[in-house]
Protein backbone atom coordinates (compact mmCIF):
# COMPACT_ATOMS: atom_id res chain seq x y z
CA UNK A 1 0.00 0.00 0.00
CA UNK A 2 2.79 2.35 1.04
CA UNK A 3 4.75 1.44 -2.11
CA UNK A 4 1.71 2.14 -4.23
CA UNK A 5 1.16 5.48 -2.56
CA UNK A 6 4.75 6.56 -3.10
CA UNK A 7 4.47 5.30 -6.68
CA UNK A 8 1.44 7.52 -7.14
CA UNK A 9 3.30 10.44 -5.61
CA UNK A 10 6.26 9.89 -7.92
CA UNK A 11 3.93 9.64 -10.93
CA UNK A 12 2.19 12.84 -9.84
CA UNK A 13 5.51 14.64 -9.40
CA UNK A 14 6.61 13.46 -12.84
CA UNK A 15 3.37 14.68 -14.38
CA UNK A 16 3.78 18.08 -12.77
CA UNK A 17 7.35 18.28 -13.94
CA UNK A 18 6.42 17.29 -17.49
CA UNK A 19 3.55 19.79 -17.43
CA UNK A 20 5.94 22.40 -16.11
CA UNK A 21 8.34 21.79 -18.94
CA UNK A 22 5.65 21.63 -21.56
CA UNK A 23 4.01 24.83 -20.26
CA UNK A 24 7.29 26.19 -21.45
CA UNK A 25 8.85 29.60 -21.76
CA UNK A 26 10.41 31.40 -24.61
CA UNK A 27 13.86 30.13 -25.37
CA UNK A 28 16.52 30.53 -27.98
CA UNK A 29 16.40 27.66 -30.46
CA UNK A 30 12.88 26.48 -29.54
CA UNK A 31 12.53 24.82 -32.97
CA UNK A 32 15.99 23.22 -32.95
CA UNK A 33 14.56 19.68 -32.84
CA UNK A 34 11.07 20.16 -34.27
CA UNK A 35 11.91 22.35 -37.27
CA UNK A 36 15.66 22.90 -37.43
CA UNK A 37 15.53 25.10 -40.52
CA UNK A 38 12.76 27.37 -39.26
CA UNK A 39 14.91 30.43 -38.64
CA UNK A 40 16.92 29.95 -41.84
CA UNK A 41 13.72 29.73 -43.87
CA UNK A 42 12.33 32.94 -42.40
CA UNK A 43 15.71 34.62 -42.96
CA UNK A 44 15.68 33.63 -46.64
CA UNK A 45 12.25 35.15 -47.14
CA UNK A 46 13.25 38.35 -45.36
CA UNK A 47 16.41 38.76 -47.43
CA UNK A 48 14.68 38.00 -50.73
CA UNK A 49 11.90 40.48 -49.98
CA UNK A 50 14.37 43.11 -48.78
CA UNK A 51 16.49 42.80 -51.92
CA UNK A 52 13.37 43.35 -53.96
CA UNK A 53 12.15 46.27 -51.80
CA UNK A 54 14.64 48.01 -49.47
CA UNK A 55 11.75 49.24 -47.28
CA UNK A 56 10.88 45.71 -46.20
CA UNK A 57 13.22 45.53 -43.16
CA UNK A 58 11.55 48.63 -41.70
CA UNK A 59 8.10 47.14 -42.33
CA UNK A 60 9.05 43.98 -40.48
CA UNK A 61 10.66 45.70 -37.52
CA UNK A 62 7.59 47.87 -37.06
CA UNK A 63 5.26 44.90 -37.49
CA UNK A 64 6.80 43.13 -34.48
CA UNK A 65 6.32 46.23 -32.31
CA UNK A 66 2.69 46.58 -33.35
CA UNK A 67 2.05 42.88 -32.80
CA UNK A 68 3.58 42.87 -29.31
CA UNK A 69 1.86 46.03 -28.07
CA UNK A 70 -1.67 44.66 -28.58
CA UNK A 71 -2.54 41.49 -26.69
CA UNK A 72 1.14 40.56 -26.53
CA UNK A 73 3.33 39.07 -29.27
CA UNK A 74 0.70 36.61 -30.50
CA UNK A 75 0.26 37.32 -34.19
CA UNK A 76 -3.08 39.04 -33.53
CA UNK A 77 -2.22 41.84 -35.97
CA UNK A 78 -1.99 39.34 -38.84
CA UNK A 79 -5.62 38.17 -38.70
CA UNK A 80 -8.19 39.16 -41.32
CA UNK A 81 -11.54 38.87 -39.57
CA UNK A 82 -13.52 41.50 -41.38
CA UNK A 83 -14.44 44.94 -40.13
CA UNK A 84 -13.24 44.22 -36.58
CA UNK A 85 -9.75 43.06 -37.66
CA UNK A 86 -7.14 44.45 -35.30
CA UNK A 87 -4.96 45.40 -38.28
CA UNK A 88 -7.57 47.99 -39.29
CA UNK A 89 -7.09 49.96 -36.07
CA UNK A 90 -6.13 53.60 -36.49
CA UNK A 91 -3.08 52.97 -34.30
CA UNK A 92 -1.77 50.46 -36.84
CA UNK A 93 -1.97 52.87 -39.79
CA UNK A 94 0.66 52.09 -42.41
CA UNK A 95 1.81 48.79 -40.90
CA UNK A 96 3.05 46.49 -43.65
CA UNK A 97 5.07 43.32 -44.22
CA UNK A 98 2.21 40.87 -43.87
CA UNK A 99 2.99 39.19 -47.21
CA UNK A 100 6.54 38.32 -46.15
CA UNK A 101 5.23 36.63 -43.00
CA UNK A 102 2.54 34.77 -44.94
CA UNK A 103 5.01 33.55 -47.57
CA UNK A 104 7.47 32.31 -44.95
CA UNK A 105 4.61 30.58 -43.14
CA UNK A 106 3.52 28.78 -46.32
CA UNK A 107 7.01 27.37 -46.78
CA UNK A 108 7.26 26.41 -43.10
CA UNK A 109 3.92 24.59 -43.27
CA UNK A 110 5.31 22.64 -46.20
CA UNK A 111 8.54 21.75 -44.40
CA UNK A 112 7.21 21.20 -40.86
CA UNK A 113 3.44 21.52 -40.71
CA UNK A 114 1.79 22.79 -37.55
CA UNK A 115 5.03 23.62 -35.76
CA UNK A 116 6.12 27.24 -36.15
CA UNK A 117 3.83 29.98 -34.86
CA UNK A 118 3.12 33.14 -36.81
CA UNK A 119 4.06 35.23 -33.78
CA UNK A 120 7.50 33.65 -33.82
CA UNK A 121 7.85 34.23 -37.56
CA UNK A 122 7.21 37.93 -36.91
CA UNK A 123 9.83 38.00 -34.14
CA UNK A 124 12.43 36.16 -36.24
CA UNK A 125 11.71 38.38 -39.25
CA UNK A 126 12.21 41.52 -37.13
CA UNK A 127 15.56 40.19 -35.93
CA UNK A 128 16.62 39.44 -39.50
CA UNK A 129 15.38 42.84 -40.65
CA UNK A 130 17.72 44.53 -38.18
CA UNK A 131 20.64 42.34 -39.26
CA UNK A 132 19.91 42.99 -42.95
CA UNK A 133 20.12 46.74 -42.24
CA UNK A 134 23.65 46.32 -40.84
CA UNK A 135 22.33 46.42 -37.29
CA UNK A 136 23.22 44.04 -34.46
CA UNK A 137 22.82 40.31 -34.93
CA UNK A 138 21.15 38.67 -31.96
CA UNK A 139 19.61 35.43 -30.82
CA UNK A 140 15.86 35.56 -30.90
CA UNK A 141 13.74 33.76 -28.32
CA UNK A 142 10.97 31.60 -29.74
CA UNK A 143 8.13 29.41 -28.49
CA UNK A 144 5.26 31.91 -28.75
CA UNK A 145 1.80 30.56 -29.57
CA UNK A 146 -0.67 32.35 -31.80
CA UNK A 147 -3.60 34.10 -30.13
CA UNK A 148 -7.33 33.61 -30.59
CA UNK A 149 -8.39 37.26 -30.54
CA UNK A 150 -8.29 40.03 -33.12
CA UNK A 151 -10.31 43.14 -32.43
CA UNK A 152 -9.42 46.66 -33.45
CA UNK A 153 -10.71 48.12 -30.19
CA UNK A 154 -7.86 46.37 -28.38
CA UNK A 155 -5.38 48.57 -30.23
CA UNK A 156 -6.62 51.85 -28.76
CA UNK A 157 -3.59 52.15 -26.45
CA UNK A 158 -1.02 51.97 -29.24
CA UNK A 159 1.59 54.71 -28.78
CA UNK A 160 0.59 57.65 -30.96
CA UNK A 161 2.82 60.13 -32.77
CA UNK A 162 1.21 63.00 -30.82
CA UNK A 163 1.50 61.42 -27.36
CA UNK A 164 3.27 63.40 -24.66
CA UNK A 165 6.43 61.91 -23.24
CA UNK A 166 4.52 61.17 -20.01
CA UNK A 167 1.88 59.21 -21.91
CA UNK A 168 4.48 57.32 -23.91
CA UNK A 169 6.25 56.35 -20.70
CA UNK A 170 2.93 55.22 -19.25
CA UNK A 171 2.08 53.12 -22.31
CA UNK A 172 5.48 51.45 -22.18
CA UNK A 173 5.22 50.83 -18.42
CA UNK A 174 1.89 49.09 -19.06
CA UNK A 175 3.88 46.61 -21.16
CA UNK A 176 6.54 46.30 -18.46
CA UNK A 177 9.00 48.28 -20.52
CA UNK A 178 10.91 51.01 -18.76
CA UNK A 179 12.03 54.44 -19.79
CA UNK A 180 15.31 53.11 -21.17
CA UNK A 181 13.37 50.67 -23.34
CA UNK A 182 11.29 53.60 -24.60
CA UNK A 183 14.40 55.45 -25.75
CA UNK A 184 16.11 52.43 -27.25
CA UNK A 185 13.06 51.08 -29.03
CA UNK A 186 12.33 54.55 -30.43
CA UNK A 187 15.81 54.13 -31.88
CA UNK A 188 14.18 51.62 -34.26
CA UNK A 189 13.37 54.74 -36.27
CA UNK A 190 16.97 54.54 -37.44
CA UNK A 191 15.47 52.70 -40.41
CA UNK A 192 12.34 53.36 -42.38
CA UNK A 193 10.18 56.21 -43.46
CA UNK A 194 7.15 58.14 -42.33
CA UNK A 195 4.29 59.62 -44.29
CA UNK A 196 4.03 63.43 -44.32
CA UNK A 197 0.65 62.79 -42.66
CA UNK A 198 2.45 62.34 -39.32
CA UNK A 199 4.33 65.62 -39.72
CA UNK A 200 1.74 68.10 -40.80
CA UNK A 201 0.72 69.19 -37.33
CA UNK A 202 4.37 69.46 -36.27
CA UNK A 203 5.19 71.65 -39.26
CA UNK A 204 2.16 73.89 -39.54
CA UNK A 205 -0.04 73.71 -36.48
CA UNK A 206 2.17 73.02 -33.53
CA UNK A 207 1.76 76.34 -31.75
CA UNK A 208 -1.53 77.97 -30.83
CA UNK A 209 -2.32 80.09 -33.89
CA UNK A 210 -0.10 77.96 -36.16
CA UNK A 211 3.61 77.55 -36.73
CA UNK A 212 6.20 74.78 -36.50
CA UNK A 213 7.52 72.87 -33.51
CA UNK A 214 10.28 75.15 -32.18
CA UNK A 215 12.39 72.11 -31.30
CA UNK A 216 13.03 71.46 -35.02
CA UNK A 217 16.53 72.63 -35.89
CA UNK A 218 16.23 75.78 -38.09
CA UNK A 219 18.65 74.15 -40.54
CA UNK A 220 16.33 71.18 -40.90
CA UNK A 221 12.97 72.94 -41.03
CA UNK A 222 13.24 74.15 -44.69
CA UNK A 223 14.03 70.64 -45.84
CA UNK A 224 11.02 69.20 -44.02
CA UNK A 225 8.78 71.94 -45.42
CA UNK A 226 10.09 71.32 -48.91
CA UNK A 227 9.30 67.60 -48.67
CA UNK A 228 5.94 68.08 -46.95
CA UNK A 229 4.56 71.48 -48.10
CA UNK A 230 1.12 72.48 -46.77
CA UNK A 231 -0.69 71.12 -49.83
CA UNK A 232 1.36 67.92 -50.10
CA UNK A 233 -0.12 64.50 -50.73
CA UNK A 234 0.05 63.24 -47.14
CA UNK A 235 1.23 59.85 -48.38
CA UNK A 236 4.58 61.27 -49.55
CA UNK A 237 7.26 59.64 -47.42
CA UNK A 238 10.58 60.71 -45.97
CA UNK A 239 13.27 58.91 -43.96
CA UNK A 240 12.93 59.18 -40.19
CA UNK A 241 16.69 59.09 -39.68
CA UNK A 242 17.97 62.02 -41.70
CA UNK A 243 20.83 60.96 -44.02
CA UNK A 244 20.90 57.36 -42.81
CA UNK A 245 17.41 55.95 -43.27
CA UNK A 246 18.35 52.51 -44.58
CA UNK A 247 21.14 51.74 -42.14
CA UNK A 248 20.64 50.64 -38.58
CA UNK A 249 22.93 52.88 -36.50
CA UNK A 250 22.96 55.40 -33.65
CA UNK A 251 22.62 58.42 -36.00
CA UNK A 252 18.98 58.47 -35.00
CA UNK A 253 19.92 59.41 -31.43
CA UNK A 254 22.43 61.97 -32.67
CA UNK A 255 19.75 63.44 -34.94
CA UNK A 256 17.29 63.60 -32.05
CA UNK A 257 19.88 65.45 -29.94
CA UNK A 258 20.50 67.94 -32.74
CA UNK A 259 16.87 68.77 -33.47
CA UNK A 260 16.81 66.60 -36.59
CA UNK A 261 14.14 64.21 -35.29
CA UNK A 262 11.39 63.73 -37.83
CA UNK A 263 8.71 62.22 -35.63
CA UNK A 264 7.33 64.38 -32.87
CA UNK A 265 7.58 61.57 -30.32
CA UNK A 266 11.27 61.10 -31.08
CA UNK A 267 11.85 64.83 -30.56
CA UNK A 268 9.99 64.63 -27.27
CA UNK A 269 12.60 62.27 -25.88
CA UNK A 270 14.47 65.48 -25.08
CA UNK A 271 11.49 66.93 -23.16
CA UNK A 272 11.96 64.69 -20.15
CA UNK A 273 15.15 64.78 -18.06
CA UNK A 274 15.32 60.99 -17.77
CA UNK A 275 14.82 60.18 -21.43
CA UNK A 276 17.13 63.05 -22.42
CA UNK A 277 19.83 61.77 -20.12
CA UNK A 278 19.51 58.30 -21.68
CA UNK A 279 19.80 59.73 -25.20
CA UNK A 280 22.84 61.77 -24.11
CA UNK A 281 24.47 58.80 -22.40
CA UNK A 282 25.31 57.28 -25.79
CA UNK A 283 27.43 60.30 -26.69
CA UNK A 284 28.71 61.81 -23.47
CA UNK A 285 31.32 59.67 -21.85
CA UNK A 286 34.73 60.29 -20.42
CA UNK A 287 37.81 58.18 -21.04
CA UNK A 288 37.10 56.46 -17.74
CA UNK A 289 33.60 55.28 -18.56
CA UNK A 290 32.89 52.33 -20.78
CA UNK A 291 31.20 53.56 -23.90
CA UNK A 292 27.60 52.32 -23.88
CA UNK A 293 26.49 50.64 -27.08
CA UNK A 294 23.19 51.66 -28.63
CA UNK A 295 23.17 48.46 -30.68
CA UNK A 296 23.75 46.15 -27.68
CA UNK A 297 21.19 47.96 -25.53
CA UNK A 298 18.67 48.01 -28.38
CA UNK A 299 18.93 44.22 -28.57
CA UNK A 300 18.18 43.88 -24.85
CA UNK A 301 15.06 46.03 -25.24
CA UNK A 302 13.96 44.10 -28.34
CA UNK A 303 14.23 40.81 -26.47
CA UNK A 304 12.15 42.32 -23.65
CA UNK A 305 9.57 43.60 -26.11
CA UNK A 306 9.40 40.13 -27.66
CA UNK A 307 8.29 38.72 -24.30
CA UNK A 308 5.26 40.96 -23.86
CA UNK A 309 2.17 38.91 -22.99
CA UNK A 310 3.39 35.79 -24.76
CA UNK A 311 1.41 32.57 -24.69
CA UNK A 312 3.65 29.52 -24.39
CA UNK A 313 3.09 25.80 -23.89
CA UNK A 314 0.72 23.49 -25.74
CA UNK A 315 -2.35 24.44 -23.70
CA UNK A 316 -2.23 28.08 -24.69
CA UNK A 317 -3.05 29.57 -28.05
CA UNK A 318 -2.48 27.60 -31.24
CA UNK A 319 -0.13 27.20 -34.17
CA UNK A 320 -2.05 28.67 -37.08
CA UNK A 321 -2.04 26.97 -40.46
CA UNK A 322 -2.04 30.34 -42.17
CA UNK A 323 -1.17 33.57 -40.43
CA UNK A 324 -4.20 35.63 -41.42
CA UNK A 325 -6.84 33.24 -40.06
CA UNK A 326 -7.55 31.33 -36.86
CA UNK A 327 -7.55 27.54 -37.34
CA UNK A 328 -11.29 27.25 -36.62
C1 LIG B 1 7.55 55.16 -29.05
C2 LIG B 1 6.40 55.02 -29.67
C3 LIG B 1 6.32 54.98 -31.16
C4 LIG B 1 5.59 55.80 -31.95
C5 LIG B 1 4.68 56.93 -31.49
C6 LIG B 1 5.85 55.43 -33.31
C7 LIG B 1 5.28 56.02 -34.41
C8 LIG B 1 5.63 55.75 -35.71
C9 LIG B 1 5.09 56.44 -36.86
C10 LIG B 1 4.05 57.53 -36.83
C11 LIG B 1 5.68 55.91 -37.95
C12 LIG B 1 5.42 56.28 -39.41
C13 LIG B 1 4.37 55.34 -39.96
C14 LIG B 1 4.02 55.57 -41.41
O1 LIG B 1 4.06 56.71 -41.87
O2 LIG B 1 3.70 54.57 -42.10
C15 LIG B 1 6.59 54.89 -37.50
C16 LIG B 1 7.37 54.15 -38.33
C17 LIG B 1 8.19 53.13 -37.89
N1 LIG B 1 8.30 52.67 -36.61
FE1 LIG B 1 7.56 53.55 -34.96
N2 LIG B 1 6.72 54.36 -33.32
C18 LIG B 1 7.03 54.06 -32.03
C19 LIG B 1 7.83 53.05 -31.61
C20 LIG B 1 8.41 52.10 -32.43
C21 LIG B 1 9.04 50.90 -32.00
C22 LIG B 1 9.11 50.44 -30.54
C23 LIG B 1 9.50 50.26 -33.11
C24 LIG B 1 10.23 48.95 -33.22
C25 LIG B 1 10.92 48.40 -32.25
C26 LIG B 1 9.18 51.11 -34.23
C27 LIG B 1 9.54 50.86 -35.53
C28 LIG B 1 9.20 51.65 -36.60
C29 LIG B 1 9.73 51.46 -37.93
C30 LIG B 1 10.81 50.49 -38.34
C31 LIG B 1 9.07 52.39 -38.75
C32 LIG B 1 9.25 52.60 -40.26
C33 LIG B 1 8.14 51.87 -40.99
C34 LIG B 1 8.18 52.04 -42.50
O3 LIG B 1 9.20 52.47 -43.05
O4 LIG B 1 7.16 51.74 -43.14
N3 LIG B 1 8.49 52.20 -33.79
N4 LIG B 1 6.54 54.81 -36.14
Question: What key attributes describe this structure?
Answer:
single chain, 328 residues, Peroxidase, domain 1, Peroxidase, domain 2, 2 domains, 13 helices, globular, binds protoporphyrin IX containing FE
> Could you tell me which ligands this complex binds, including any ions or cofactors?
protoporphyrin IX containing FE
What is the count of β-strands?
4
- Report the sheet-strand fraction: under 5%
Record the strand order, biggest sheet: 1-2
How many structural domains can be distinguished in the coordinates? Answer: 2
- At the fourth CATH level, what is the homologous superfamily of the largest domain? Peroxidase, domain 2
Query: What is the ordering of alpha helices and beta strands?
Result: HEHHHHEHHEHHEHHHH
Please give the count of helices: 13
**First-residue to last-residue Cα separation:** 47 Å
Main sheet: strands, sense, barrel? 2 strands, antiparallel
Q: State the CATH topology of the largest domain.
A: Peroxidase, domain 2
Mean pLDDT across all amino acids: 93
Amino acid sequence: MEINLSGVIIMFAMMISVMGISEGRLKVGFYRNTCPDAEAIVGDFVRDAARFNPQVPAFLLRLHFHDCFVQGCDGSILIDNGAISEKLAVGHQGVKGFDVIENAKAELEFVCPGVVSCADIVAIAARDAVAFSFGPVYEVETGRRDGFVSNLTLANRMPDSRDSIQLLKQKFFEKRLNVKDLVLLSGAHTIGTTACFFLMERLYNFMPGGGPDPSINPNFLPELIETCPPNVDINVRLPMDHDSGNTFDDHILQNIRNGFAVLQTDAKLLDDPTTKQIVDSYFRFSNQTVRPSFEADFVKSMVKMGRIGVETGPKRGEIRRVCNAFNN
